[in-house]
Amino acid sequence: MPWQEDTRMSLRKEFVHLAQQQKLPLAELCRRFGISRKTGYKWLDRATCPNERDFADRSRRPHSSPCQTPRAIEKQVVRVRQRHPAWGGRKIAHVLKREGLVEVPAPSTITHILRRHGLLVEKEYGHGRPYQRFEHEAPNQLWQMDFKGHFQTTTGRCDPLTIIDDHSRFNLSLQALRGQSTEPVKDTLTEVFRRYGLPQRINMDNGQPWGSPRARDHGVSRFSAWLIRLGIKISFSRPGHPQTNGKDERFHRSLKAEVLHNRLFDDLQQAQIHFDRWRQIYNYERPHEGIAMAVPADRYSPSVHPFPEQLPTIEYGPNDHVRKVHQLGRVSFKGYWILASKGLRGQPVAFRPIPQQDGVFELYYCHHHFRTINLRDCKKGR
């Protein structure tokens, strides 16, 4: 993937962070970022000081600026708050410690400082009832994916697509799309897979383009069939229970409070510029209370399972009855027409007999079970 001018330094910073984890061979990581190994080593050599200037192209300016007079503590608190207007005392305190301030005020003191300077809204925007937290043990065991509710730009609608790693809260994608159709989502996810590898499972909401287990497609839409073909397990949120995708929902609240609130974008491109800038802050600077005030990047590492540029061959077991899905999403089996999914048109599915239950079969697509069929309840078809 070529590095664009607006996000060049942040991508170099992210590349260095992932390379220093040594979870993937450097050559593989360079391939995912679309750079040569020589370039990768160059940015690793420059990363001797955690300063974003080190990732900029070399110029004739000096590498360091003259020493400045230290600011008063209140000015430092105000500075952080002005950069991040939605952050409270606890986040600001951790940021000041991370920046090397020795005598950091207590979070309650920082709250009073903000109030004295007129920077604290008593009822902070976006607060709500906290979700009960469940967390997977390692990165990439589960990703949560959904659309943030759409909003209007000057030139049309914007639907932000968001993907969060469950363990680390690392944001893998924040993409400004127009609409929720399959192909733009698939293109976005392909780039995410190429950079970060494949997760074990992705949890999605119900509806298009994801599908739904309660719909006629049994959760196997054209989009979810592609994920299954890649070897990814899929799951869906319970209707009316947003806490099933709670970490992504919490991310949406932060996005609304820190980026979207009281802001109007001209178009998708301008929205994406703001999304890219804030994504770096969220992943690498913003302390997260759900992970003991760490930043998501400290807990995330890329998957060891790379994205295959060609889909793997579909294979079934020797006792499976393999049939091809017809144009209307139906399958002919033992004289019956069985509804599978229009998302599987032209694809082979397997009827797997259940031992000691005559006429009962499990219906699979690759590794994914999506129906149980009892032929006694089916009608013969032509």
Kindly describe this structure.
The chain has ten helices and twelve strands. It is α+β, with helices and mostly antiparallel strands and 382 residues long. The protein has four domains: 8-55; 73-116; 143-298, Ribonuclease H-like superfamily/Ribonuclease H (Nucleotidyltransferase, domain 5, 2-Layer Sandwich); 321-377, no CATH class. It is elongated and about 80 Å long. The relative contact order is 0.11.
Layout: helices, strands, pairs:
Blueprint: H1 8-21, H2 26-33, H3 37-46, H4 73-83, H5 89-98, H6 107-116, E1 143-147, E2 151-153, E3 156-165, E4 171-177, H7 182-196, E5 201-204, H8 222-229, E6 233-236, H9 246-260, H10 268-284, E7 321-324, E8 330-333, E9 336-339, E10 348-353, E11 360-365, E12 368-374
Parallel strand pairs: 1-5, 5-6
Antiparallel strand pairs: 1-3, 2-3, 3-4, 7-10, 8-9, 10-11, 11-12
